[in-house]
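> example.struct
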């Protein structure tokens, strides 16, 4: 299966091409991205489709080879998410292929999971800048980072004090209190502006596009 991944949840504009579960062809992981310099505006609208075409050209494949389109659904900025989701929907309809949504925080956590496992960390905490002095956060146990139902911390926007409360075991969810008391110093922390839709993230794109998105105005 050939998956075209698109992500515009952060300032970066990213397109990736991944082949998964296909024994008749070799592995394939390609990525093209645009990272605007500090102080400049993201170029999601003008760069996204060009980057998608770039990874296809690099693989010497046409649009007809794409079996599935995966799009980052946040959390992130409203404008970026709108551009990414609208573009992905238009491409999926035009090519008559499946469209699935991928959590941006889960994508970050999936990228960090192998490193967390090597460091014997029992959990992965994904953190993204939400502006206004807050962060988007979510956490998973390392061995089940790809399972949304296994969330230790559900996706949320919170300030540093609120995040420290959850990680320090003072959460209102008693079932996680002892967990965070033991592991607050062992969590694999990730603060990543460079979102990458790689093979692990594409494997997480299994369900229909969720109805809700976490967004923060640009």
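> example.seq
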């Amino acid at each position: 299966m050939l998956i075209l991944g698109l992500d515009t949840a952060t300032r970066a504009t990213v397109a990736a091409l991944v082949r998964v579960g296909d024994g008749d062809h070799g592995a394939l992981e390609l990525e093209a991205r645009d990272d605007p310099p500090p102080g400049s505006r993201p170029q999601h609208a003008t760069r996204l489709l060009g980057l998608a075409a770039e990874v296809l050209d690099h693989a010497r494949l046409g649009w007809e080879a794409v079996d599935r389109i995966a799009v980052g659904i946040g959390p992130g900025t409203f404008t970026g998410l709108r551009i990414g989701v609208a573009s992905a929907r238009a491409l999926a309809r035009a090519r008559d292929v499946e469209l699935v949504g991928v959590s941006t925080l889960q994508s970050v956590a999936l990228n960090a999971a192998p490193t967390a496992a090597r460091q014997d960390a029992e959990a992965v905490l994904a953190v993204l800048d939400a502006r206004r002095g807050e962060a988007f956060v979510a956490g998973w146990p390392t061995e089940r980072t790809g399972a949304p139902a296994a969330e230790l911390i559900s996706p949320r926007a919170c300030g540093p004090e609120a995040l420290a409360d959850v990680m320090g075991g003072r959460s209102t969810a008693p079932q996680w209190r002892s967990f965070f008391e033991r592991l607050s110093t062992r969590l694999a922390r990730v603060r990543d502006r460079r979102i990458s839709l790689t093979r692990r993230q594409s494997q997480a794109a299994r369900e229909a596009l969720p109805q809700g998105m976490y967004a923060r105005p640009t």
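> remarks
The first helix runs from residue 44 to 58.
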